[in-house]
Recover the amino acids of this structure.
């Protein structure tokens, strides 16, 4: 433990003091946006200046403000309808990426105002022409006022942060943070929920939520969470068991290649970029696929094998003739290329929209690839990424800005509750642990409360949202991500309090020994598993440091029957194999297939039907067990 | 994932309002995947229970209404362009003013979208050509008759040719749709007969 403490660092992490009201890249792009609007405004003004007919004047005014031409023509109700139509189109753009939609709708409302115009009102003309510039000035003023408030809040927070030390964990020793825990019967029942989802045929998606393929309920996010929680359970509970647990991770990774899962990109690229190339990786956006899928592979490969690093192993197939051949390396290279080429360093998910949390997955993809394949992607970009997260995507009061428009520079935090900050803190811990620790600390200071042994999440509408199925109810999802973040960031007391809150109030659903929260989405249940199987710095250890050599070289339980044999613990010190097994389908006599033994060596076995076993020339052996209840098996 | 809670919240509110208005409520979230099984050697055990897709194929009615809704939007755009260019005249003695007419057409479009969405049950049915043609044609023809002969807000001059050119595409699409539907019925009847014969 002493060696471990030496590897950890204790640091103070202050909030950066901004030099201006807007960070540099954002300011440049916002200036460009305002200039572009000014050009449109002048074009809209021209018909009025040259004394063109009312139709032209109305169309021009419709360009300066959505619905402006209709207001000028004496149709205030239609003007409001036009304005709302443009707002709806912006929301659609935000949610699904059709960049062309807002300008098209705006242009259409302007065009439609031309024939609908009656006798134009000069008063309306002045109001319409003044409205756009007035809104810009107003927004700038509001931003200045809010920014000043955030700066003052940041200064107060920094006074506390100077007195606060965060622990940045270093490489774990096999005897320190890495001791492998044993899953309880409840843990195993929850794990089976994920296993059943993943072990169905590759072309089946039974049990997945199916609402849309664009937003949070999309199948890909469920597959991501599925793979992450399975990997995490392997890392912290059963690193010496591959079998159906590794197969389940492979299945989740392979299901991502199904066109039904990634085909959304063809649409988004077409209506977002007017680009009919369907390639989901060879583009400068879509980190919501490349970053997330890359991390699935990174976690799998850290614990198992390099199946997905082989050329073409990740081929996104459109049809029998068209496929986009990729592998772990091309995904990581894509993330690196796009971050290198982005003015913000972070790059978009949907066309135009940059999400801070999604880019944390891209960072982890690069880090795990660097470790496994010797590239230097993350090290090269780390200063820029840190700068971006600390300036372009951070308010002076420490709140992470969740989304920013690449084209316009705009961002907003409407209704954003703590869930997204918690999620970001969790996923950021691998790459930028200082910011993750500070974010968690800020959340504890402001948005979360422990009373006395339960967690109370700030009462916001968004805190009651389950993004996995877009339902509003209790703060279940918020509690789940609190478990994830608290446990990962080393605040086990908070993690247990949030878990207790869930345990005491959430209704359970159970079927054939499989258990989940009944009233939470599939996505929320999978993240609940990720939190359940986590531990202090588990994500960071897995992504940054990987599995120790002893785990990658020592004997493993290669196969066991499912669900007859549930593996509660499987660990090796490089020589011996220690297993804890539980029956999943009643008492049974079954066999366990071992691998990575020393060929020809005789091993002593305890807990099985035989006392010794001899490894075959391939280092494999099979032993029988009678499994009626919890059973410890040792092979050494 | 929860990358943008705000937009998910917007979707949640829209869905909540939608399911409050539309009979049937929100579809249930699936609970569990079919139980998986593996042999001790890792090979799969064939235990897959065929899961009947809870989502029935889309009804032809939904497709037909959807096509009519899209055509309504197209029609509104075409008439606006015709008026702007002067090819169509606004009649001074029309029964209603243009803004009222625009609202009427907008309401028709919205009603068609709602009706299509209510009837939609997911999936894409085979043979969607007939309902698309029929729905689009009926919408075009109906809106044209409404504008020219009921509300009297559009006039395309005195030429029979211009009337035919304006109403004709709708009539033609309806006829083709009805023909395609009849042909599908014939093919289905022939297939049923073949099954009976076997």
């Amino acid at each position: 433990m002493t060696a471990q403490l030496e590897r950890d660092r204790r640091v103070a992490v202050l909030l950066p003091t901004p030099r201006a009201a807007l960070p540099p890249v954002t300011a440049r792009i916002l200036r460009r946006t305002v200039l572009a609007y000014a050009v449109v405004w002048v074009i809209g003004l021209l018909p009025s200046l040259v004394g063109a007919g009312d139709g032209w004047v109305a169309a021009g005014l419709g360009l300066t403000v959505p619905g402006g031409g209709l207001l000028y023509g004496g149709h205030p109700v239609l003007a409001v309808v036009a304005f709302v139509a443009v707002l709806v189109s912006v929301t659609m753009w935000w949610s699904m990426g059709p960049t062309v939609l807002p300008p098209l709708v705006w242009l259409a409302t302007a065009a439609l105002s031309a024939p609908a115009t009656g006798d134009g009102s000069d008063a309306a003309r002045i109001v319409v022409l003044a409205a756009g510039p007035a809104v810009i000035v107003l927004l700038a003023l509001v931003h200045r006022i809010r920014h000043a408030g955030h700066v003052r809040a940041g200064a107060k927070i920094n006074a506390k942060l100077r007195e606060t030390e965060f622990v940045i964990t270093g490489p774990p020793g096999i005897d320190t943070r890495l001791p492998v825990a044993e899953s309880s019967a409840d843990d195993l029942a929850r794990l089976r929920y994920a296993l059943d989802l993943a072990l169905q045929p590759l072309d089946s998606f039974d049990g997945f939520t199916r609402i849309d393929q664009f937003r949070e309920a999309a199948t890909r996010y469920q597959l991501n969470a599925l793979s992450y929680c399975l990997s995490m359970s392997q890392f912290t509970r059963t690193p010496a068991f591959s079998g159906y647990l590794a197969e389940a991770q492979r299945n989740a990774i392979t299901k991502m290649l199904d066109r039904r899962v990634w085909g959304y990109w063809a649409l988004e690229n077409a209506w977002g970029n007017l680009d009919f190339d369907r390639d989901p990786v060879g583009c400068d956006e879509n980190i919501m696929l490349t970053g997330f899928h890359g991390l699935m592979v990174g976690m799998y490969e850290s614990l198992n094998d390099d199946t997905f690093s082989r050329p073409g192993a990740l081929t996104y197939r459109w049809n029998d003739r068209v496929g986009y051949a990729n592998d772990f390396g091309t995904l990581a290279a894509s993330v690196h290329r796009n971050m290198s080429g982005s003015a913000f360093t972070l790059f978009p998910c949907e066309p135009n929209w940059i999400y801070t949390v999604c880019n944390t997955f891209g960072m982890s993809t690069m880090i795990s690839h660097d470790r496994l394949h010797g590239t230097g992607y993350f090290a090269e970009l780390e200063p820029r990424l840190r700068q971006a997260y600390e300036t372009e995507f951070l308010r002076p009061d420490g709140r992470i800005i969740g989304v920013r428009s690449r084209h316009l520079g705009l961002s907003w935090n409407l209704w954003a509750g703590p869930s997204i900050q918690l999620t970001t803190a969790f996923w950021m811990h691998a790459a930028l642990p200082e910011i993750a620790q500070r974010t968690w600390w800020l959340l504890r200071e402001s948005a979360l409360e422990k009373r006395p042994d339960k967690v109370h999440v700030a009462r916001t509408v968004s805190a009651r949202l389950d993004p996995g199925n877009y339902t509003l109810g209790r703060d279940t999802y918020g509690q789940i991500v609190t478990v994830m973040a608290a446990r990962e960031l080393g605040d086990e007391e908070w993690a247990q309090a949030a878990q207790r809150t869930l345990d005491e109030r959430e209704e359970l659903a159970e079927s054939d020994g499989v258990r989940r929260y009944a009233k939470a989405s599939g996505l929320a249940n999978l993240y609940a598993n990720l939190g359940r199987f986590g531990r202090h710095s588990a994500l960071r250890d897995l992504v940054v440091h990987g599995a120790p050599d002893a785990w990658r070289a020592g004997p493993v339980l290669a196969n066991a029957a499912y669900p007859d044999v549930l593996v509660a613990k499987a660990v090796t010190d490089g020589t011996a194999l220690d297993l804890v097994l539980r029956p999943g389908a009643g008492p049974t006599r079954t066999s366990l297939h071992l691998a990575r033994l020393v060929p020809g060596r005789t091993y002593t076995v305890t807990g099985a039907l035989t006392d010794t076993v001899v490894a075959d020339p391939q280092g494999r052996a099979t032993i029988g067990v009678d499994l009626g209840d919890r059973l410890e098996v040792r092979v050494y | 994932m929860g990358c943008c809670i705000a937009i998910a919240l917007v979707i949640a509110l829209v869905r909540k309002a939608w399911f409050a208005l539309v009979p049937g409520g929100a579809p249930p979230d699936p609970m569990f995947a079919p139980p998986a099984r593996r042999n001790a050697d890792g090979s799969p055990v064939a235990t897959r229970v065929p899961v009947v897709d809870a989502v029935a194929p889309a009804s032809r009615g939904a497709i037909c209404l959807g096509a009519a809704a899209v055509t309504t939007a197209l029609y509104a755009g075409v008439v606006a362009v015709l008026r702007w260019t002067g090819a169509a005249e606004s009649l001074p003695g029309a029964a209603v003013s243009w803004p009222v007419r625009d609202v009427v057409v907008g309401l028709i479009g919205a009603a068609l979208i709602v009706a299509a969405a209510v009837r939609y049950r997911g999936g894409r049915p085979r043979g969607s050509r007939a309902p698309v043609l029929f729905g689009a044609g009926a919408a075009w023809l109906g809106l044209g008759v409404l504008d020219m002969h009921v509300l009297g807000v559009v006039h395309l001059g005195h030429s029979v040719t211009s009337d035919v050119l304006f109403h004709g595409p709708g009539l033609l699409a309806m006829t083709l749709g009805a023909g395609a539907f009849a042909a599908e019925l014939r093919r289905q009847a022939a297939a049923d007969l073949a099954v009976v014969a076997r």
In short: The interface with chain A takes residues 1-13, 15-16, 26, 29-42, 44, 48, 51, 77, 80, 83-84, 98-99, 102-103, 106 of chain B (CB under 8 Å).
